[in-house]
Amino acid sequence: MSKIVFFVLFFSLFLYSKSVDIGFSHTFSLKKDQIAEIVVIKDTPKTFPKEGELKFRWTLFQNERVVLLIDYEGFQSQYILQKRYGLNSIRIYVSGDYKKSALRDFLILRFVSFDDKRGIVKLDMEYVDLSKRFEIKILRPKK
What we know:
Blueprint: H1 2-16, E1 22-31, E2 36-42, E3 50-62, E4 65-72, E5 75-82, E6 89-93, E7 106-115, E8 120-128, E9 134-140
Antiparallel strand pairs: 1-8, 2-3, 2-9, 3-4, 4-5, 6-7, 7-8
């Protein structure tokens, strides 16, 4: 009986689980202190379209860890990322909708690899736009 209940609960969670829709994905290959710059265009109902600027760069790679410096709308932060699951990515919220915290839009920056010969860090960026109110523009590095 308990196996049947477990199966029914697991199957119902599987059916009704909401998958995360990734609206945008991009891979950055950055040299040391090379700045990546992204503009997030916010189209909120109460204001005119507003632009939020995100800049990030890496400064140090040591012991399989990379130090990442981030500046989003003037708020600066520093992260140490490594290849282990749970420690390889950060989440940056782009909206201030605290009343709907489950529906907040965010960027994910994920550390993928480091090329020793060329001195390049590869970072993946994914953007989850649940409310469909934002747009991303990559200013640099140009490809």
